[in-house]
Amino acid sequence: MKNLRLFKIEMLGALFISVIGSLLHFTYRAAGSYWLVGVFSAVNESTWEHLKLAVIPAAVWLLLERYVFKVRSDNFFFAKTVAVFLPPILIVGGFYGYTALLGDNFLPVDISLFVFSVISGQYVGYRLMTTPEFSKKSDKLWLGLVLAALVAFAIFTFYPPRFFLFKEPINQSYGINKSL
């Protein structure tokens, strides 16, 4: 292990993201469906809304790592961008892959897939931070991509595209406004 402290911080991040992400599944309803809570919480059972549960806490963890834990490593912002984007990719691929094979989804598998995806994102981020530096010139680009993802999650909560990822499977609606 190249940097045990960094590895421990990344795995602590996986725990943080998994716990906070799980809680965010329930905060919108617990807050009385308050629209502002919907910006960072799942507002329905669509795949897209469930991706927030990994992305939002991972973006928060990026900030905590940098400014609370004072992590300074090669490729930090690139690695953290990968750690934010990899879990949703794994979740979508894994979810639609296993449901295509089995014909239905199963909550224990969904939860395991979520945790596996989060741990994978943090681990790959760790590996990237312990490789030789690529370039600091692209730090703003990586931060911009994370910010763009956060903005997309906020916007698509209220104005979701008519695409299968955004469709709520129970009542066939889209986004926060059930009348859309």
Polypeptide structure, described:
It is a single chain. This protein is an all-alpha fold and 180 residues long. The chain is 68% helix and 0% strand. It has six helices and no strands. Helix 1 (4-30) packs antiparallel against helix 5 (107-129), helix 4 runs antiparallel to helix 5 and helix 4 crosses helix 6 (139-158).
Helices and strands in order, then pairings?
Elements: H1 4-30, H2 35-38, H3 47-67, H4 76-102, H5 107-129, H6 139-158
Helix pairs in contact: 1-3, 1-5, 3-4, 3-6, 4-5, 4-6
Task: Look at the structure and give the mean pLDDT.
Answer: 93
Spans of 5+ residues with little confidence (pLDDT < 50)? none
Biggest β-sheet description: none
What is the beta-strand fraction?
under 5%
Number of discrete helical segments: 6
Brief sketch in words of this structure:
It contains six helices and no strands.
Features:
180 residues; mainly alpha; 68% helix
